Amino acid sequence: MKILLIGHGKMGQAIEAYAIQRGHSIVAIVDVQDSITPILTQQADVAIEFTHPDSAFENIKCCLENNLPILSGTTGWLDRKPEIEQICKKNNGTFLYASNFSIGVNLFFKVNRFLAKIMQQHDQYSPSMVEVHHTHKKDAPSGTAITLAEGIIAENKNIKSWTNQKTENSGELPIVSERIGEIPGTHKVTYQSEVDQISIEHEAYSRDGFVQGAVLVAEWLPAQKGVVKIDDFLKL
Ligand SMILES: NC(=O)C1=CN([C@@H]2O[C@H](COP(=O)(O)OP(=O)(O)OC[C@H]3O[C@@H](n4cnc5c(N)ncnc54)[C@H](O)[C@@H]3O)[C@@H](O)[C@H]2O)C=CC1
Ligand SMILES: O=C(O)C1=N[C@H](C(=O)O)C[C@H](O)C1
């Protein structure tokens, strides 16, 4: 498979190495100083985009307008995702966004939803979340924390919204974001009562899970059409 790699930072470099190991070729690497040209999009089967919250929208739009299937793992730009979905439909394109490409986290999302659903009958338990990442991370809360929060809000009628600040409002889910050293990504959801607590946690040991998931999804993506989800790939 021929890959157009957009973003050559921590994720882009690791994806390049893993994709080559799996026998793929990188037709071009586009970083902040480069442009995505029609020539580049014509040479590739798929684009993989891990850049910056401010640049994801334009990168994805450009690929969709040039008929190149694209997956993006960039977080922190989701207010513009509905626009991208419209552009994808208008161009009969293929687009996939996942806040986290690791298989373990996507299983964790399901466990989180199940727990949120059964906890709604037990409102003596207050939910909260902590996410911990490396100090280079640009956005807070993490994209994964937002997906977890959306899962809780969808399944538990007692929780109406999330906040990244302290809150006394029982209908609001507090998310605490910590930035420490080189931590790849840890997410913990806790339900606490006066007598005990229940916690579920996912801890990434390295970026390998994100990288492997992104390349496996990229192999599957060119045969798909429309706005697709990682759940479709994982058959979850
Ligand atoms: N969905 C997932 O599984 C994961 C998502 N991420 C997200 O991916 C994004 C990138 O993460 P890292 O690689 O760790 O960041 P990084 O800061 O190491 O690399 C980002 C790269 O994008 C480049 N860049 C910035 N603007 C660009 C533009 N307009 N066009 C092309 N390249 C541009 C930068 O120069 C840099 O090389 C972040 O939003 C992060 O939250 C990170 C890990 C896993
Ligand atoms: O920036 C990161 O590193 C990560 N970003 C994603 C997120 O915001 O959830 C996924 C993973 O946690 C690593």
TrEMBL record:
<keyword id="KW-0520">NAD</keyword>
<keyword id="KW-0028">Amino-acid biosynthesis</keyword>
<feature type="active site" description="Proton donor/acceptor">
    <location>
        <position position="133"/>
    </location>
</feature>
<dbReference type="GO" id="GO:0009089">
    <property type="term" value="P:lysine biosynthetic process via diaminopimelate"/>
</dbReference>
<keyword id="KW-0220">Diaminopimelate biosynthesis</keyword>
<dbReference type="Pfam" id="PF01113">
    <property type="entry name" value="DapB_N"/>
</dbReference>
<comment type="function">
    <text>Catalyzes the conversion of 4-hydroxy-tetrahydrodipicolinate (HTPA) to tetrahydrodipicolinate.</text>
</comment>
<feature type="domain" description="Dihydrodipicolinate reductase N-terminal">
    <location>
        <begin position="1"/>
        <end position="101"/>
    </location>
</feature>
<comment type="subunit">
    <text>Homotetramer.</text>
</comment>
<keyword id="KW-0457">Lysine biosynthesis</keyword>
<dbReference type="GO" id="GO:0005829">
    <property type="term" value="C:cytosol"/>
</dbReference>
<feature type="binding site">
    <location>
        <position position="31"/>
    </location>
    <ligand>
        <name>NAD(+)</name>
    </ligand>
</feature>
<keyword id="KW-0560">Oxidoreductase</keyword>
<comment type="pathway">
    <text>Amino-acid biosynthesis; L-lysine biosynthesis via DAP pathway; (S)-tetrahydrodipicolinate from L-aspartate: step 4/4.</text>
</comment>
<comment type="similarity">
    <text>Belongs to the DapB family.</text>
</comment>
<dbReference type="InterPro" id="IPR022663">
    <property type="entry name" value="DapB_C"/>
</dbReference>
<dbReference type="GO" id="GO:0008839">
    <property type="term" value="F:4-hydroxy-tetrahydrodipicolinate reductase"/>
</dbReference>
<protein>
    <recommendedName>
        <fullName>4-hydroxy-tetrahydrodipicolinate reductase</fullName>
        <ecNumber>1.17.1.8</ecNumber>
    </recommendedName>
</protein>
<feature type="active site" description="Proton donor">
    <location>
        <position position="137"/>
    </location>
</feature>
<dbReference type="InterPro" id="IPR023940">
    <property type="entry name" value="DHDPR_bac"/>
</dbReference>
<dbReference type="InterPro" id="IPR000846">
    <property type="entry name" value="DapB_N"/>
</dbReference>
<dbReference type="GO" id="GO:0051287">
    <property type="term" value="F:NAD binding"/>
</dbReference>
<feature type="binding site">
    <location>
        <begin position="73"/>
        <end position="75"/>
    </location>
    <ligand>
        <name>NAD(+)</name>
    </ligand>
</feature>
<feature type="binding site">
    <location>
        <begin position="98"/>
        <end position="101"/>
    </location>
    <ligand>
        <name>NAD(+)</name>
    </ligand>
</feature>
<dbReference type="GO" id="GO:0050661">
    <property type="term" value="F:NADP binding"/>
</dbReference>
<dbReference type="GO" id="GO:0016726">
    <property type="term" value="F:oxidoreductase activity, acting on CH or CH2 groups, NAD or NADP as acceptor"/>
</dbReference>
<dbReference type="GO" id="GO:0019877">
    <property type="term" value="P:diaminopimelate biosynthetic process"/>
</dbReference>
<feature type="binding site">
    <location>
        <position position="134"/>
    </location>
    <ligand>
        <name>(S)-2,3,4,5-tetrahydrodipicolinate</name>
    </ligand>
</feature>
<dbReference type="Pfam" id="PF05173">
    <property type="entry name" value="DapB_C"/>
</dbReference>
<keyword id="KW-0521">NADP</keyword>
<keyword id="KW-0963">Cytoplasm</keyword>
<feature type="domain" description="Dihydrodipicolinate reductase C-terminal">
    <location>
        <begin position="104"/>
        <end position="234"/>
    </location>
</feature>
<dbReference type="InterPro" id="IPR036291">
    <property type="entry name" value="NAD(P)-bd_dom_sf"/>
</dbReference>
<feature type="binding site">
    <location>
        <begin position="143"/>
        <end position="144"/>
    </location>
    <ligand>
        <name>(S)-2,3,4,5-tetrahydrodipicolinate</name>
    </ligand>
</feature>
